[in-house]
Amino acid sequence: MSMPQFSEAQEVFKLYEGEIPHNKITDARNNTINTSTIGNVDLAVVDPTVTVFRPEKGKGNGAAVVICPGGGYTVIARTHEGDSVALRFAQAGVTAFVLQYRLPNPKFVNSKEVVPLEDAQHALAVVRERAGEWGIDPHRVGIVGASAGGHLASTIGTHFNHNYDAHRSE
């Protein structure tokens, strides 16, 4: 597979500005390891991020997708279920956003049943709000995931009338 030649550096941004909802006070930091078989795996996420994969200049079609990698809600298989998927979308002209969401680990978060949903919903809102920066149509933003990330994406899709995002009012 040939990799696309990106004309702009890929961007990584923090999902939340300021206080992160439902986080416990901790000295913990995001913890990622690199495995020889599947690449980067996130073991702990306390400060969620989003990595942007843009199509080659002039190749974008205005569509975007938030990607939720899987990992059984115990890790995030970011390289092979996030970044590699994002590269394929970018090759097809779709701007892709890989979400490094918080895992429901009670050592780091309160309301463990809510935080992945909150992060996914917030990521969709941020991508739509900032669509102009990336040359995308805010009405053409989807969400997809693999394994646990697929469960997360489908839950966001079926619970769209429920606001999990503490940064947004209902």
Written account of the structure:
This protein has 170 residues and is α/β, with parallel strands linked by helices. The strands form two sheets. A five-stranded mixed β-sheet has the order 1-4-6-5-7, with helices on both faces. A two-stranded antiparallel sheet has the order 2-3. The radius of gyration is 15 Å and the shape is globular. The N terminus is likely disordered. Helices cover 26% and strands 21% of the residues.
List the helices and strands and how they pair.
Blueprint: E1 11-14, E2 31-35, E3 39-44, E4 49-53, E5 64-68, H1 78-91, E6 95-100, H2 115-129, H3 131-134, E7 141-145, H4 148-158
Parallel strand pairs: 5-6, 5-7
Antiparallel strand pairs: 1-4, 2-3, 4-6
